Amino acid sequence: MTDRRTFLHSAAAASLATFGLPAFAASPSLREKRPLIIDALGNIDNINLPAVQRDSATYDFGIDARALADAKASGLNAFNMTIGYVFGEGDPYEKSLADVHAWNALIQKKSADLLLVRSAADIKRAQTEGRLGVILGFQNAVMMGKDARRVEVFAKGGVRVIQLTYNGPNQLGDGSTVPTNKGLTPFGYEVVAELNRNHILVDLSHSGEQICLDAAAASKSPIIISHTGCRAVADLPRNKTDKELRLVAEKGGFVGIYSMPFLAVGRQPMAADLIAHIEHAINICGEDHVGFGTDGTVPQIDDMASYMKGLEDEVRQRRAAGISAPGERPDIVPFLPDLVGRDKFWKLADLLTKRGHSSSRIEKILGANFLRVADGVWS
């Protein structure tokens, strides 16, 4: 473990010189254009703070001065922030309602820096005003209970993205780790219809293959997979098959590639793995339907040894709770060690440029694709 920690600490501090690129090598013309950068699933909290602070409204969910400074310096304009019940104890509906209220209050409190996103125009406004657009989203729809009309309650509270399942099963169907691969249930169809009616993005991340295919076919609006990888590149349950990716694109949707352990099998993934998944997704979906959803935050880790100890505890707890997915390991960090910190989005642009992707395509990946799909659903 010591050797791995040493490696991860040095890699996390490294620049794209690893790839033969100088640090801060993003094309000046691209930076000058100030392209929209939207994280389809992410956070901006200061990961160096104790977990209790990052999970608590009392401590602004870990969004301190450093978190705000790093996020703004990164060029980020908006991010889909997971709130509400995902798993664990407590009543899912009450927990989710409380989170909606808490996040609305926080955004209002920090209105000089944050802006609640209810429409695509709000993302553009956030960029113009130098603020960060916060897209409120759920990573589980279990809080709907037996009443699909609850969707409207959350829509009025500002929620704009709702994922149907987490890794396990719920009343809508099976998540990605459930062997039975049960598709969309009758209640699941009701929820999808209500999501469409209330102009909320249907998110199929973490879903089993069949519920993903069912929901994509049933939805009258384009759907998204906010954070995933490609099964053809790394054969793990959290990644999507080409069939799923293709159907999402055919329905006019969006696929965001994450920076998670599932980008590689049995080893620590790096930035090159992210590029491989993005390129495969483009080959399957087309360049108008691919972006990124990091499933991570912006500030860089200061104390890697402490972080690794916390990661060991987290992986153990997730396994004990039955919510972990194959590929989650205590010696593989849930981010890309050579693509971290306030320059990570520009470094991603650098890598794509070096691979021969055009500036227009890179702008689509950075945020334009997500914005277009969201605009069509939220309007």
Topology diagram in text:
Layout: H1 2-13, H2 28-33, E1 38-39, H3 51-54, H4 65-73, E2 78-82, H5 92-109, E3 114-116, H6 120-129, E4 132-138, H7 150-156, E5 159-163, H8 186-197, E6 201-203, H9 209-218, E7 224-228, H10 242-250, E8 254-257, H11 271-285, E9 290-292, H12 304-321, H13 344-354, H14 359-378
Parallel strand pairs: 1-2, 2-4, 3-4, 4-5, 5-6, 7-8, 8-9
Helix pairs in contact: 9-10
GO molecular function, one term: metallodipeptidase activity
Organism: Duganella flavida
Signal peptide: 1-25
What does the main sheet amount to? 6 strands, parallel
CATH architecture: Alpha-Beta Barrel
The ordered string of helix (H) and strand (E) elements is HHEHHEHEHEHEHEHEHEHEHHH
Shape: globular
* CATH homologous superfamily identity: Metal-dependent hydrolases
Termini, distance in Å? Answer: 50 Å
Number of helices: 14
The CATH class turns out to be Alpha Beta
Q: How would you classify the helix and strand content by structural class?
A: alpha/beta
Count of individual domains: 1
Mean pLDDT: 93
Low-confidence stretches: 1-25
